[in-house]
Specification:
Elements: E1 2-9, H1 13-24, E2 29-33, H2 39-44, H3 46-65, H4 79-90, H5 93-103, E3 107-110, E4 113-115, E5 121-123, E6 126-135, E7 139-141, H6 155-160, E8 167-171, H7 175-186, E9 191-196, H8 207-220, E10 222-226, E11 229-236, E12 239-246, E13 249-255, E14 257-260, E15 264-266, E16 280-281, E17 284-286, E18 299-301, E19 306-307, H9 314-330, E20 344-346, E21 352-356, H10 359-364, E22 369-375, H11 380-383, E23 391-397, E24 403-409, H12 413-425, H13 430-434, H14 447-450
Helix pairs in contact: 1-9, 3-4, 3-7
Length: about 450
């Protein structure tokens, strides 16, 4: 049996962020993943998606600026070349990452990890033991539990295909549904539909700004249907028939591809965590503020597979890994995880961004606050780039003048929200943020007028 000080399951940010410092501290470390090294964000999520968005931005610019002097008639996307561009990143990263880990003395393993009843870890025909285990296996698409689910493609499938179907249906109106719908439509798909089972889409974002994004999405030619509950999928030749229920009755859609964008769940089902007494809740492995399992002190977990209560975002898992590494190496709880204001962004064009509380959340907490809400399509920053859908909503606490939440839609929103998050984390008041002198004209220079 092979013995290690630490075995890490999952080779994304939540895993590598523990592996490097442990190896540097002289620990004997092994890492295993059933997928190529790099994790979901790097290979099957955030990074490749943003590369596709980068290409489709060209189409968006051409459309927005065609009446402003830009002669770009007939701008179109070659899907195969766009995917080849994406692979210039996703194909080189796994071997590069493995090489770096191996050079640091970390044993790199491949295969499905599963705990044995004896408390050891089985990977293929190898049995391994360790003093500590760190789990960072991320999330996987949730089961839809509908007839014909076998016909549904995943977001990973979408990011690997060499052509875009002409008729696409996305089941779910969250991050993935909206981002991939925008990519598909700008890349040339003729019919793109988003089916959202709830009354509104992008439920974690401000309703007023989401309404603006839905209108922008519809203006792009994407059909967004809320209160549309998918009941089943059948196949007829090369076509798929999606049956869904609405307040007006049962309806059907015919398409060439159905994409799962209805949410993800912790990717821990195959680990046999019961064998080592690790407690699991609906949101994943139960951990304390030190990222240690609440039921097995030799196990740590971070990221989308851990029930930390934090948003399932890559930079969150990276930060959690940094804290978990300190506690693992110290072999005692020396650093609790403290979450700063965490921004999140839907990378549509234009993006929608959020940090802090929603208006409804602040009200539910009994906070007294002022709401600053404005549509800004006539502001210089939007006029300059021809964007007709932009706006903001900022919540400012009355007694303290502190920013409770900020919500943005428009060009530059993904960077504006970072600056506001930084200001909130440092305890700046709205008036203090107004006093910051940003370079002008820039997207950041609009922030003072928002707060």
């Amino acid at each position: 049996m092979d013995k290690f000080d630490l075995i890490i399951i999952g080779a994304g940010t939540g895993g590598t962020g523990v592996a490097w410092p442990a190896a540097k501290a002289g620990w004997k470390v092994a890492m295993v993943d059933v997928e190529p090294y790099g994790g979901t964000c790097m290979l099957r999520g955030c990074d490749p998606k943003k590369m596709l968005v980068g290409v489709t931005e060209g189409v968006d610019w051409a459309e927005r600026m065609k009446s402003n002097g830009l002669n770009a008639e007939g701008v179109s996307i070659d899907w195969a070349k766009m995917m080849a561009f994406k692979r210039t990143f996703t194909e080189i990263m796994p071997p590069k990452l493995e090489k770096g880990l191996s050079k640091s003395g970390i044993e790199v393993l491949h295969g499905q990890a599963r705990f044995n009843d004896s408390g050891t870890l089985q990977i293929g025909d190898r049995e391994l033991s360790a003093k500590y285990f760190h789990i960072a296996t991320g999330a996987t698409p949730m089961t839809l539990d509908i007839p014909g689910e076998e016909y549904v493609s995943t977001s990973t499938d979408f990011l690997e295909q060499d052509s875009t179907p002409q008729r696409i249906v996305f089941i779910g109106g969250g991050f993935i549904g909206f981002e991939f719908a925008h990519i598909s439509k700008r890349a040339g798909a003729k019919e793109v539909t988003v089916l959202q089972r709830g009354k509104r889409a992008l439920v974690n974002f401000d309703p007023d700004l989401v309404d603006m994004q839905v209108k922008r999405t519809q203006a792009l030619g994407i059909d967004v249907k809320c209160e549309a509950v998918v009941e089943g999928i059948t196949k007829s030749g090369n076509e798929y028939i999606v049956e869904y229920d609405t307040p007006e009755g049962n309806k059907k859609l015919t398409c060439d591809q159905v994409i799962h964008s209805a949410g993800r769940v912790p990717n821990i089902a195959d680990l046999n965590l019961e064998a080592i007494g690790v407690s699991v809740g609906k949101r994943g492995i139960e951990v304390n503020e030190y990222l240690r399992s609440t039921s097995n002190p030799n196990v740590f977990a971070v990221g989308d597979c851990a029930n930390t209560g934090a948003p399932n975002l890559t930079p969150v898992s990276a930060n959690e890994a940094r804290i978990a590494a300190k506690n693992i190496i110290a072999e005692k709880d020396v650093r609790a995880m403290k979450y700063p204001p965490i921004p999140s962004v839907v990378f549509t064009l234009p993006p929608v961004a959020r940090v802090g509380l929603l208006e409804s959340e602040a009200a539910d907490q009994g906070l007294k606050f002022d709401v600053k809400f404005k549509k800004t399509e006539n502001w210089y920053s939007s006029r300059r780039v021809g964007e007709q859908f932009s706006g903001y909503k900022v919540l400012v606490e009355q007694e303290t003048n502190k920013i409770l939440g900020a919500h943005l839609i428009g060009p530059g929103a993904e960077e504006q929200i970072n600056l506001i998050a930084m200001a909130m984390g440092q305890g700046m008041t709205a008036n203090q943020l107004k006093g910051v002198i940003f370079a002008y004209p820039s997207y950041a220079s609009d922030i003072g007028s928002m707060v």
